[in-house]
Here is the input.
Amino acid sequence: MPNLTRVSESEAFTHELRVRYSECDAQGIVFNARWFEYFDVAMTEFWREVIGGYSHLPDALGIETVVAETGARFRGAGRFDDVLTFVIHVRRIGTSSMRVEIDALRDDATLCEGFIEYVFVDPRELRPVEIPERLLDLLPEPA
Here is the structure.
């Protein structure tokens, strides 16, 4: 059984990463599709903080997540060797879904604003299920 801990309600979850050369396009800026990879990395760390890792969703809670919708608004350019901070806010928790918004920052500049809408599903049938109370108790309150 994983060590389950509640994410702080008073502050957003953050994760930093450094842009690698291979993630940049011919213009020397972060290729647009990479931002979704970065969101996925940040969310993997979010789940590690909340429940000890994404793999604990099926193991400890009997659920999985699927992405129902995602999107991004690009506001600036990330470049090779930039250190980016991803700030995750849980914005909505429904019966079987959750929306997170992710801001990608370099210093104080917002480079990308994204969102992911997750649906919680049965791991075998991939049909929507209610979010277990145990998980609801661990997630931060929507801001």
Q: What stands out?
A: The longest helix spans residues 34-51.
